[in-house]
Fold:
Amino acid sequence: MRIDTKVRSNPLRRRLRRLGTWERREEAVAFVDQFHRELELGDAARRARLREVKRALARDGHYDHTPDELAYGARVAWRNHARCIGRLFWKSLEVFDCRSIVEPEEMAGRVVDHMVFARGGGSIRSAISIFAPVRGAGLPAYIESRQIAQYAGYQEENGRILGDPITAESTRIAIAMGWSPPAARTRFDLLPFAIRDARDRRMIFELPEHAVQQVGIVHPTLDGLGSLGLRWYTVPCVSSMILTIGGIDYPCAPFNGFYMGTEIASRNFCDERRYDLLVPAAEALGIERTGPVWRDRVLTELNLAVLHSFQQAGATIIDHHEASAQYMDFIQREAAAGRAPSGKWSWIVPPQAGSACPVFHLAMRDRKMVPNFYDSRATDGDELAPRYDDRRRNRWIARWERLRRRFQSWRRRRD
Structure:
């Protein structure tokens, strides 16, 4: 663990939603109602809990979720998140209540435990670890890294990046703080993850070897791909998004599912802003770069190689056709439950063979419901709000609440 004491500003404050008193109260009431309605806990229990929550908000501007509310809220946040194709299994999300863990060293230890749990014996388990919420003007410690496991991106003298360009700045910071990369640097060196504590000091922590399973990528029939030395980690644990439940924000809530093959093969390996391996992969695979569809052939073979390699290692992965079928199943189940799910077309449709997947032809709308995850109030957080169009409500109350939300949004933009 290394500490950077020169940090002077906290970007988290600029990312957090700025809820007014009535907005926070509305979200809390909507969440408590939903919690008791969907879990069929009874009207008497709902009214009693609403009285507790309203008193706490009036007194402190904050209330604490019960463990059951926290677990339910995290699962519904996954169910509501429009950018995830893998929501069919939202009910099985394992929720770890870590709100009492506030010191960075203990948080880092919990993160390691999370990664070990998630990887299991290769069968990846979806999980989330939820740390302390924002309470009043103070900010809790939170994870600054985009993901827990990431590969370093080293800036070379010729201006090129060795490794993953998306982590170039994080790599520079880690080295400046004293992290020592391997003597022989490669394109796939695991980067430490960063935590900012409550005093706004940045600390970095390295992942122990047993916490991360990495898979070497080889093709089942074309041996040349092995010459590139490709590999990838099995657990994608997103750690920079903010979880919001019932008007309460949790800025440190690392969560993981498992990979869809195209995320690694088509995006991480082949995007120009990432590893940009289309040409090297074509040469290694013996694919001539002539004609209009050579790129498609390379992407197909890379996807086959990633799926084959993960399966050989016993690590959970899914192909984009099966993921699309599961998403259609999720849509049908939500409709049967009387809910209209959110979806963002550009995120749901796979980057490979998109029109051959049923989701390509599906009309989608991001309903921006809460509970949910968001990156920043400037991008997706400010538009999140309770949605009541799947319930019967008094139309005049609904209109009044819409007008009030619009006024609050307008006032925030003026500020």
User: Anything to note?
Assistant: The two ends are 39 Å apart (CA to CA).
